[in-house]
Amino acid sequence: MAKLLTEYKDTEHIDSFSLIKSADIRLTKTGKTYLNLIFSDRSGDLPGNLWDATDEQTKSLVPGKIVKLQGVRGAYQDKPQVQITNVRLSEAGEPDNPADFMIHAPIKEEEMNDELSDFILMITNPTWNRLVRKLFSIYHDQFLRYPAAKSNHHAFAGGLAFHSLSIAKLSRNLANQYPQLNSELLIAGALLHDLGKTIELSGPIATQYTISGNLIGHITLIDEQIVLAAHELHFDLQSEEMVLIRHVVLAHHGLLEYGSPVRPAVMEAEVLHQLDEIDAGIQMMTAALDKTDKNTFSDRIFGLDNRRFYKTSE
Amino acid sequence: MAKLLTEYKDTEHIDSFSLIKSADIRLTKTGKTYLNLIFSDRSGDLPGNLWDATDEQTKSLVPGKIVKLQGVRGAYQDKPQVQITNVRLSEAGEPDNPADFMIHAPIKEEEMNDELSDFILMITNPTWNRLVRKLFSIYHDQFLRYPAAKSNHHAFAGGLAFHSLSIAKLSRNLANQYPQLNSELLIAGALLHDLGKTIELSGPIATQYTISGNLIGHITLIDEQIVLAAHELHFDLQSEEMVLIRHVVLAHHGLLEYGSPVRPAVMEAEVLHQLDEIDAGIQMMTAALDKTDKNTFSDRIFGLDNRRFYKTSE
Amino acid sequence: MAKLLTEYKDTEHIDSFSLIKSADIRLTKTGKTYLNLIFSDRSGDLPGNLWDATDEQTKSLVPGKIVKLQGVRGAYQDKPQVQITNVRLSEAGEPDNPADFMIHAPIKEEEMNDELSDFILMITNPTWNRLVRKLFSIYHDQFLRYPAAKSNHHAFAGGLAFHSLSIAKLSRNLANQYPQLNSELLIAGALLHDLGKTIELSGPIATQYTISGNLIGHITLIDEQIVLAAHELHFDLQSEEMVLIRHVVLAHHGLLEYGSPVRPAVMEAEVLHQLDEIDAGIQMMTAALDKTDKNTFSDRIFGLDNRRFYKTSE
Amino acid sequence: MAKLLTEYKDTEHIDSFSLIKSADIRLTKTGKTYLNLIFSDRSGDLPGNLWDATDEQTKSLVPGKIVKLQGVRGAYQDKPQVQITNVRLSEAGEPDNPADFMIHAPIKEEEMNDELSDFILMITNPTWNRLVRKLFSIYHDQFLRYPAAKSNHHAFAGGLAFHSLSIAKLSRNLANQYPQLNSELLIAGALLHDLGKTIELSGPIATQYTISGNLIGHITLIDEQIVLAAHELHFDLQSEEMVLIRHVVLAHHGLLEYGSPVRPAVMEAEVLHQLDEIDAGIQMMTAALDKTDKNTFSDRIFGLDNRRFYKTSE
Amino acid sequence: MAKLLTEYKDTEHIDSFSLIKSADIRLTKTGKTYLNLIFSDRSGDLPGNLWDATDEQTKSLVPGKIVKLQGVRGAYQDKPQVQITNVRLSEAGEPDNPADFMIHAPIKEEEMNDELSDFILMITNPTWNRLVRKLFSIYHDQFLRYPAAKSNHHAFAGGLAFHSLSIAKLSRNLANQYPQLNSELLIAGALLHDLGKTIELSGPIATQYTISGNLIGHITLIDEQIVLAAHELHFDLQSEEMVLIRHVVLAHHGLLEYGSPVRPAVMEAEVLHQLDEIDAGIQMMTAALDKTDKNTFSDRIFGLDNRRFYKTSE
Amino acid sequence: MAKLLTEYKDTEHIDSFSLIKSADIRLTKTGKTYLNLIFSDRSGDLPGNLWDATDEQTKSLVPGKIVKLQGVRGAYQDKPQVQITNVRLSEAGEPDNPADFMIHAPIKEEEMNDELSDFILMITNPTWNRLVRKLFSIYHDQFLRYPAAKSNHHAFAGGLAFHSLSIAKLSRNLANQYPQLNSELLIAGALLHDLGKTIELSGPIATQYTISGNLIGHITLIDEQIVLAAHELHFDLQSEEMVLIRHVVLAHHGLLEYGSPVRPAVMEAEVLHQLDEIDAGIQMMTAALDKTDKNTFSDRIFGLDNRRFYKTSE
């Protein structure tokens, strides 16, 4: 079986199918145009430049296309790249499904779907149960397929569900150890807290921020959806249950500086925020250390104050 | 005509009707109970202690009641107080309307109502016009009677309208000087930006934060009302007009640290935030300097980084 | 059975045995001396003043003594206090063991001892296992009896063990969900991270900071003990295992500003820090909400940025 | 009529007169020298490299010269540049006045001069009037021609006057709405607040900081000039009028962190600071949005916390 | 010889002459007036209340008067105070010079005067020498008698000279160890840096901020005096020597946040700032530790980030 | 005699022996490999690229080798570089000792050794004397040869001793001026404070952080060595002398944010921190100004908040 893009070592010959993730026409210092491409498959990304791109290549080699790529693995300013010797669109009988070349959550979609159903069943409070079911009747598919972010943590297809379900598991375990916590409120909050990302972001491929994502933000966007769902379900927005679920979701960034309009002021809100940080942190460290040699330090991790983490010998 | 409460000088005899703003039963250091009262009229507050309150007095002298107060103006730790010689409920034929004893905006309610109508007429964009009219059909009376804050700036009856209309005037003038500004968006934003305070606060008398005020906050609460109004008017939440008006309102605190979930990213949002700061700042400085002697410094103003301001000689 | 000190309501008569936690001779504004006492039992504290203390009372009513206290529950500046009518030392046949009047961890000492043994057994790495056992051979008893802090979170007898074991449990569960984490390093770190408090603090009663606690601090003090233990066990301080366990303990405050000399740079160090925050946070919120009425806000919690938390209706 | 430099689209042929703003001799990675030029006209800047500059070209193509430029508009790392095909000095009969190629304030110098006179007339307080007239008798011409900054806001010829007069207009309008403000103090402050820039900066072309600009700063430099002018006018530096005008100017950056040696402590000082921020902010946003396509975001604006602003569709 | 005020122990009888530093008429909680007095001598302060002050006492016991004080040393809220039994104005033949009751610099005025002359002689650069001599021809006496601050460090008569000369000594020694430093610039800066305090503060007794002290500040006030002196001496303000000496003085607070309008950008400016911090720090620590028992911690020192310092056993 | 590397001017021919400080194989934008070299001698560094390196060159031109370098001095992006025409390893009879090509402290090693002995003799307190001697019996040679940092201040061979002894001199002088300071504690602290750098850093050539340097840090590493030395000398870790010397060393970074686990809480600790800042600051400014032309500003100095410093004309 063919090697994946990030498995090639320096100077190795690459011969592989991959997805074009981005394609930019650029100018060399001396004024010639060339094509800067980023190839990807489910192992990650590899950039490369096509120095004498024909007009036809410039037109056909666009994001979303599957190509057969040949070249040599090199490095530029310490970053891996491919020196392209040949690149062409995939042909009939060759791989052609972009989804096969995207990074996915480490758990299958069906499995995540089952977990989602199980967690919803654990919410026996009728207000929260109906509210969650109403919202997942609309956003079910996006929840399972969207990334949890444009870059940073869980920035892969299915990342949103993987992250949210992971926090739901942490919530369930924590409520076992600390019975003073309301596990239903925690689980409902875990499932809903980042659901606004499905409106904030453009989708799982070539993910961008939408205009309302930029100008309103995912926290207010999911609050909007909660308000509209409650309106349709004829729930009283001033009831304690509605105020609590909105608060838990609104406050999940923990600090105003991070975009929450209120700081956690209910025990479950504080805890949900901390679990969010733990899961995001572990995912970022794991992803960074996966690319790091033993006994060395990872690249700096933006989402963790630009710290570098040490990979131990075992 | 009787003097107002804050007009009495030290050692002067007080004989005046006033409103009981708060009444707390307290303990002296040696263990005796007494009644700590705050009296107020439209000139401000004056505290005083009733050292040997009877059971009947404890029951009848409660917040909201009008009383006839007699005593001597003194001071305790540099703060004015009244040494009470007599206090009783107002009787038939004497003043009995609490509203007559509250601090009000310096402009009459009818005049503010007229100004509000004028400004709404200036908004010719149909989306914003209908949205604003829809919301004022619900919150018209509260807008004219609520304070703009529990304490801090414009914390008096009618303060919300006085503050909002003042910003609308600044907006109109600014848009004249800088034609690149959209005056309709600015005016609509000025009228709506603090309207969530009518849900966040309990009302004009003995103002407290409501539960949803504390846990959700006035910025998200007015966004909720905008969303529901747009839903009823069948407006598309993704339209540029809806995104802009929501953004301008959401971003009006300027910084995430001050509770806006997004920072201003549209010119009018940045400007509305700055006008809000100017009007609030001038109101706080004016109120503090009104109580300050010439050629001395005011008390520290909490909302202006605890600065003291100098009152000039003319 | 007699009521506990914090169970009395305002104006109720108190007749109770309690421990004198502190006793200060003070001066009234008019220059008379009196005795300011803080009484406590396992429900909490209650202050009171003895206005005409005899010389004999001043000498005998000292911290650590058990007394029979009679008086009336009142309040001074909204804080509960007792108006003392009578107070005398406990006599023969009456309660006389201070330990019976102290607040304790909610789990029994023996149970915590068993949990400690179980967790040590889970550490199969010989370096960490021998190191942990060596240190607990010295600090075993203090670990089970010290508080985790002078004030703030887990400031009660047994708090250190209760807090450390709680984090060990969180560690074990987390390592189940995230197999990329080294559970043995996490558990060893959980058990050792605050053990320096046994040198930093004076003990479980009338807890004070020691001189080395103030000038060196518990983080460096436990590092000192780890270094000396490793020296005696002939471990190489430059070995990865020794560097890792020291790093995890040194970095557990997360930020330099909070007194860690290094920030977490190993995945388990970051996670241990976050679990420490979660357990401390839940304990502080739980303690504050225990004293709060439903549908109201708690007092401000110093260790959580002075936030107040809302107690829900169920 | 010829297009302006910034009006050319990618790949268009440029044939245009322009001013050389800067010219640096540089080295390619492989060690050859080339000439890096920045061309400008009243529409803005365009950089370009002359790869095989002759010695004569290196000597003659220097800042301040007008050249005839021919080439193709391209881009390098997303920034527009020109691929030069030909560049030569302008000849007899062709444009040769650098002032024609500089960006200017949108209002004519004479008009600004009239406005200045009008505002000075509004200052009837004799101390402030004579002080302002004394200073403008010295700095009149520089006031009208200097930029308001080296880069950032109003960094164009005449920017200082344009900015100062704009704030004077805002001051006049604000004092109308809030009669508690002293409009003369505000207007005098508006005219003087940035006048020290005429000493801090080297001039309107190729603007640099002077040594005293760097080591003393424009705020202290204008205070120095005010002190010397007052000295010559035999004004008492301890008079309230002199203290106030100096305070208003010294405090106009609002925060110590921004270089004011005192924070605003007089109402007019606080307001002048806020108007300064509003005018600078609007100018920066306007300049950035002028270069931005509709429905997209501007470049980051350094002077506004690196925020990007959205350009609406109309 | 009579004990000094701060040398009395608790319960000791006081019989002593002292200076009245402040005298306020206050109200007890139950509404009676009393006289709150602060007595002082060269050992420090002692407050006390005169509970039944006659009208004559209220009029005669005013700040600046010397009194014969009798009473008992007690404490109120852990702070020493005197319970007054008798207090009367000093009579003929008794002490009557306020200066004898003020805290002074530990070095005699004449000695400081000699040191000042010596340091001025070390400045051989004619510009700086003449400038310094010009300014000391005006401010010589105030320099020797003013405190260096209202409270905080060197807040005693002669503190300004004591502090400035101490920094001059540090400067001389430092320039010996680091010959790259210009010792004349350092010494001139040391002598002038705080001289503006003679305008900022009202004088050595009952020290207050003046209006120009509050609104302009001592840094700009000494710059003003330097500018005027240079003007009279016909020095060029743009000469390097004038720019340097002004910069060194303007920048001596080190950070903009601390009120310097520019940060140090010349080596001597950076060093002067650091020496200022060292001398102020040592003085504050010394003063605090003088009042602290061995093996305990001092009170918190405001000017050192509210830290407490430990007094060692020898 | 041959010129040193940093003495060559632009376009001059270089013919010189130098040390290879680093050698990296890199890729050009068009995919060819080349060798990026940094040459150095005791005047500083000079980078250069070998565009067509043979395999043999790639293998032999490695860090630590002495080479004969020929080429032309040029510049790339304003930074000096050499355009290499020839480079070969030094041969028999030519220079071959790397130490001759390293930057050294401006004082000879023997002289620093003598100073060290003198300072140790000044410490007459037996605990501190024996402790310091014990530690220098182990780290004597590294102390004299290590740099004080990887980059930043005193980043040259012998920098650690040069910096530590310089602070010891400042300490001795300061204790003369302020007799309240314990000079022995200050000197012992000065000698030990950075000694942990000998464990934190890899050595004087091609200096890197060690693993324990990164994960434990030099402050805790020297504390570890002090603890072990005290253990061997049978000193009581709870004695005041041991607590003080550890505190002074632990607190020398002054702020928690800078990595000290405790803030200075003893006078000598505060002073040692300030002297450390002064010596480091002067060294950084001196080094930067050595490379700066008169009447211009230095490059930004990272360790001094990125400030640039002005070099005066004499």
- Pair with the biggest interface: A-C, 36 and 37 residues
> How many domains make up the 3D coordinates of chain A?
2
How does the overall form of chain A come out from the CA principal axes?
Answer: elongated
- The number of E-state strands of chain A comes to 5
Helix/strand/pairing category of chain A: alpha+beta
Radius of gyration of CA atoms of chain A, rounded to a whole number: 22 Å
Number of discrete helical segments of chain A: 10
CATH architecture of the largest domain in chain A: Orthogonal Bundle
How far from one another are the termini of chain A?
Answer: 28 Å
Stretches of chain A where pLDDT is under 50 for at least 5 consecutive residues are none
Q: Average pLDDT value of chain A? A: 92
- Share of residues in helices of chain A: 40-55%
Largest sheet features of chain A = 5 strands, mixed, barrel
- What is the helix/strand order of chain A? EEEHEEHHHHHHHHH
Could you state the oligomeric state of the chains shown? homohexamer
**What amount of the residues of chain A lies in strands?**
15-25%
Order of strands across the biggest sheet of chain A? 1-2-3-5-4
- Reported by name, the CATH topology of the largest domain in chain A is Hypothetical protein af1432
CATH class of the largest domain in chain A: Mainly Alpha
Keywords (chains A, B, C, D, E, F): Hydrolase
InterPro entries (chains A, B, C, D, E, F): HD/PDEase_dom, HD_domain, HDIG_dom, YhaM_exoribonuc/phosphodiest
Organism (chains A, B, C, D, E, F): Leuconostoc aquikimchii
Protein name (chains A, B, C, D, E, F): 3'-5' exoribonuclease YhaM family protein
